[in-house]
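Appendix B. One record, verbatim.
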Amino acid sequence: TSAVSNTVTVDGTAPTVVLSSTDGDGFVRDGQANVTITATFTEANGLSGTPTISIPTASDPVTAQAMSGAGLVWTYSWNVPAGDETVSVSISATDNAGNANAAPTGQTSFTIDNMAPSAPSVPNLDDASDSNINSDDVTNDNTPTFTVTGTNGLLLEILDGGAVVASVTADGTAQQLTTSVLADGTNKSITARTTDAAGNTTSSSALLVTIDTSNPSTPTTPDLTTDSGSSSTDNITNDNTPDFSVTGTLNHKLEILVGGSTVVATVASASGSSQSLTASTLSDASYSVTARTTDL
């Protein structure tokens, strides 16, 4: 007698499959780059044919679409549709024994969110950052602090033009954000922006801010114009509220000081040409008299 042998594999175990994607948090929106969904199977005897994927969205559903790949790893590039809903992903595959796969695990659902979040408040330049004249939004602080309110839990950013200069996770209350170094400029457009988990954004209206860190031009040396007595140029006078002629930069504050620190005369906005300032009452003494300009 003679005998022949044959090897038979008995496989009644369903293949398992784990899903992952390039959008790990599961929040997606129309218009973003396609989301790549990866199906990784575990199956000792291999798959038969090409797995298919279904994503039953209200608009543009994916129904039994063939995936790309080979072996036990397959992918699908999903063009996220419009709408707002949560959808589940299903996979259909069969192993070489004819067993259909078990329900997938891993990232099996996505939230489609195309709704823009509420707009944040317009940034407000903090008093401590608004130098010289408070509330004029002109400052010499090039890392200013702004107060702004955004929706709780969302990314909240401050932008200078289109560049992000500060960010925080919003807590739903007024928060202070200090920026990175800002370049000098007039009427810079400062906005706030919130971004939700799906990447939808909403921006506030702009606050126009001037950043000026440069020192103003030096004013002229004060010239005593009420110089009494035998000489009109000896800077000796019997006038205890003397007048001084001085020139400061146009529209800058112009001051006369004695002793380097005591302001005795001020004009809020210099004319840019020679003008006369009258000092407050001075006691008899010799004084060092200087002029000072301050920009906005």
